[in-house]
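From the methods appendix. Each design record in this collection lists the tokenized structure first, followed by the designed amino acid sequence. Records were kept in a plain field format so they could be parsed without special tools. The example shown here is representative of the layout used throughout.

RECORD:
FOLD TOKENS (135 positions):
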């Protein structure tokens, strides 16, 4: 028996597996035990499904270019590639903004900055003590 997966099935499965992988990753240490083997398995699951998603999207993109050529007798792969590049960069910027927002809302950013400031004050205090001891 020869079975095939459609592109939509691959995209859907890869998305679901990626979401499940990230949920498992976030639960390590809280629900699941802390284990390097478990982290490696979860990481493989996440990256494999993201790779399958990206590969399927590239195949679909190339098919769009070829269909455009058949339909209009023109190739617009440079325009489509530029839009894809822009979409990737936009997605990366949104990703960074979400991470920064989560760090700010959860107060992790403020705590990390406080530790940096405390280390500087400590170094200044040590320098001041050393300079008073020399006098």
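DESIGN:
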């Amino acid at each position: 028996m020869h079975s095939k997966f459609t592109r939509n099935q691959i995209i859907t499965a890869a998305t679901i597996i990626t979401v499940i992988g990230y949920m498992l990753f976030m639960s390590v240490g809280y629900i699941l035990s802390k284990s390097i083997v478990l982290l490696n398995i979860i990481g493989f699951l996440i990256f494999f499904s993201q790779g399958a998603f990206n590969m399927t999207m590239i195949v679909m993109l190339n098919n769009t270019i070829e269909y455009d050529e058949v339909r209009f007798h023109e190739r617009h792969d440079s325009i489509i590639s530029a839009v894809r590049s822009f979409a990737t960069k936009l997605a990366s910027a949104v990703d960074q903004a979400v991470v920064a927002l989560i760090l700010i809302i959860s107060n992790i950013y403020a705590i990390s900055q406080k530790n940096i400031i405390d280390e500087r004050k400590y170094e200044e205090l040590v320098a001041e003590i050393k300079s008073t001891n020399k006098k």
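APPENDIX NOTE: Helices lie at 7-27, 36-72, 77-105, 108-134.
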